[in-house]
From TrEMBL:
The keyword Secreted applies. Residues 31-185, 197-363 form the DUF642 domain. It comes from Lotus japonicus (Lotus corniculatus var. japonicus). It is found in: Secreted, Cell wall. It holds the Pfam family DUF642. GO terms for cellular component: plasma membrane. Its main location: secreted. Residues 1-21 form the signal peptide. This is DUF642 domain-containing protein. It comes from the Eukaryota. Keywords: Cell wall, Glycoprotein, Secreted, Signal.
Length: 367
């Protein structure tokens, strides 16, 4: 009796210790321990697909109905997309998985998750890293083979307990988010300079996916800029904005950019320090990611009382234009906002929203 009680605790400590070691010596981005769920559970702790017991999923603690899934067609006619490796977990009604990781107090991080909905239209993934918590709606508007999302948080101590929870209650108790891969990235946010008042102006600091994601990383809406998964920027819209990397997309400058994937519902913003009545020059680039997104595009930018419209005709070749304007600040802080005027879908996948790319935003006072 004593042994069975002590054993899970001992194992939990062991897992936690090895997680610390792995995260200590890592590059800015890393999988969580068994972050792609490819480490198989002991067959004794699994009944059909259902995991039995709090420590049945290696390196994780589970609660409630959690299934261990092999991607592809399922009994019952469903298809579960598993893009990162072969295995995934599904969180049933009110189920959760958690892992304690080592972090640096005060540091900004993003969790990068391969997550898709499985049955209901309105599945939600509740992510918590106390004291922060947030609900991320899962939609399959963006790609057929599952989406990758990023969620930002700021560490408040040297350990953080990451919990992924399905707050939903569906008629079928197994229905819920499918988690395919979970990684973390530590941020080193760039500061504004005299030559450019914009923080992280070229999107060089962002949630770069370590897994083989070719669809970009969705930045869910309404995340506060203090904890943004895209440091310095606010995802202001109702729908997600997509972070794209140079490895998988055509990006005008450097390693990262954003794709405005949901028309006027997909805006990003930043508040910069300005001097009232001073005139500023704003320069930025608009293009396409060479991802099958064609058509007449338009990016609208707002600064103080001014609106700038930038038309761009995409033929899907990864071209871009650089434009510049002047605006006069009317307050000590100025909000810069960017969105796409139109909706677009990919020519190779009509279910996938796409749009114009925004990169390298420069603002400086005109002498
Ligand atoms: C990513 O893709 C490469 C090449 O297709 C493959 O060798 C590698 O194993 C993949 N990595 C993961 C984590 O799936
Ligand atoms: C803004 O600055 C850039 C770089 O110095 C310059 O090329 C451009 O002409 C300026 N734009 C305006 C509207 O003054």
């Amino acid at each position: 009796m004593v042994v069975t009680l002590v054993c899970p605790l001992f194992l939990a400590l062991l897992f936690a210790t090895s997680a610390f070691a792995a995260l200590q010596s890592r590059s800015p981005e890393a999988y969580l321990q068994n972050g792609n769920f490819e480490e198989l559970p002991n067959p004794r702790f699994i009944k059909k697909t259902k995991l039995i017991g709090k420590y049945s999923l290696p390196k994780w603690e589970i609660n409630g109905l959690v299934e261990y899934i092999t991607g592809g067609p399922q009994s019952g006619g469903m298809f579960f997309p598993v893009t990162h490796g072969v295995h995934a977990v599904r969180l049933g009604n009110e189920a959760s998985i958690s892992q304690t990781i080592k972090v640096k107090p005060g540091q900004l991080y993003a969790l990068i998750l391969g997550a898709s909905r499985t049955c209901a239209q309105d599945e939600v993934l509740r992510i918590s890293v106390p004291p922060q918590t947030g609900d991320v709606p899962l939609q399959t508007l963006y790609s057929l083979d599952g989406d990758v999302i990023a969620w930002g948080f700021k560490a408040t101590s040297n350990v953080a307990k990451v919990t992924l929870h399905n707050p939903g209650v569906q008629e079928d108790p197994t229905c819920g988010p499918l988690l395919d891969a979970i990684a973390i990235r530590e941020f080193y946010p760039p500061m504004p300079t005299r030559a450019n008042l914009v923080k992280n102006p070229s999107f060089e600091e962002g949630p770069f996916p370590i897994f083989n994601s070719t669809n970009g990383v969705l930045l869910p809406p309404q995340q506060q800029d203090r904890f943004s998964p895209l440091p310095g920027w606010i995802i202001e819209s109702l729908k997600a904005v997509k972070f794209i990397d140079a490895k998988h997309f055509n990006v005008p400058f450097g390693l990262g950019a954003v794709e405005l994937v949901a028309g006027r519902e997909s805006a990003i913003a930043q508040i910069i320090r300005t001097e009232t009545n001073k005139v500023y020059n704003i320069t930025f680039s608009v293009g396409d990611a060479k991802n099958g997104c064609h058509g007449s595009m338009m990016v609208e930018a707002f600064a103080a009382k001014d609106t700038f419209k930038v038309p761009f005709k995409s033929v899907g070749k990864g071209k871009f234009v650089t434009v510049s304007f002047k605006f006069k600040a009317i307050a000590p802080r100025t909000r810069l906002t960017f969105y796409s005027s139109y909706y677009h879908t990919r020519t190779d996948d009509f279910g996938s929203l796409c749009g114009p790319v925004l990169d390298r935003v420069i603002v400086f006072p005109v002498a």
